[in-house]
Amino acid sequence: MEELQIIPMTEQHIPAIAGIERQCFSDPWSERALAEELNVPSAVFLTALADGEVAGYMGVHHLGDCAYVCNVAVAPEFRRRSVASSLMEAHILKAREAGMSEITLEVRSSNAAARALYEKFGFRCLGTRPNFYTNPKEHAEIYTLYL
Fold first, then answer.
1. Nearest CA to 6 among 72, 44, 71, 50?
2. Please, which pLDDT band fits residue 106 given cuts at 50, 70 and 90?
3. For 55-80, how does the pLDDT look when each residue is reduced to its tens digit (9 = 90+)?
4. Interior CA angle at 46 toward 43 and 51, to 5°?
5. Residue 122: which pLDDT band, with cuts at 50, 70 and 90?
6. Rounded to an integer, what distance in angstroms lies between the CA atom of residue 140 and that of residue 147?
7. What percent helix, strand, coil does the chain show, rounded to 5?
8. Has residue 1 got a pLDDT over 60?
9. pLDDT for residue 2 is more than 80
């Protein structure tokens, strides 16, 4: 396995992250939307680098004492190499350091791999948001980890 670093997202990571977004999501964030997050005080966006190459990223907003996960994405060629787990570990640590009481997120009902990742870290499914996603239309499962 290559050396994996988890570092704050910077402007130089944005083109690669936007490319990962396009590979992973039917409604991807644009480079502009990602760049705007660099100026949002509540945003904590981390980049996973594998031997210097952007392998994935995770974006979270700290709102009050709740951390809300916006996105987790790993480039297809870096999947099954603990990239998402490393990002999740780093964000859980940051949330604890910031005094957050919980981390919450939505995930497509059909995304078994992501749901398994969240459950591995102790997240529990607390409900469903009907037709939350479009393109294609699908329910979201609401997952929360109490810190």
1. 50
2. very high
3. 999 999 999 999 999 999 999 999 99
4. 165
5. very high
6. 22
7. 35, 40, 25
8. no
9. no
Separation between Cα atoms, residue 82 and residue 54, nearest integer Å: 14
pLDDT in tens, 128-142: 999 888 888 999 999
- 85, 93 in Cβ contact below 8 A? no
Q: Tokens representing 67? A: 């951390």
Whether the Cβ atoms of residue 144 and residue 104 lie closer than 8 Å to each other: yes
* Other residues' Cβ atoms within 10 Å of the Cβ of residue 90: 16
Report the relative pairing of strands 66-74 and 102-108 from DSSP bridges.
parallel
Instruction: Please provide the DSSP assignment of 24-51 as one string.
Output: H-SSPPPHHHHHHHTT-TTEEEEEEEET
Exposed, middle or buried, 38 (CB in 10 Å: 0-12/13-18/19+)? Answer: middle
Residue 103 and residue 147 in contact, taking contact as beta carbons nearer than 8 Å: yes
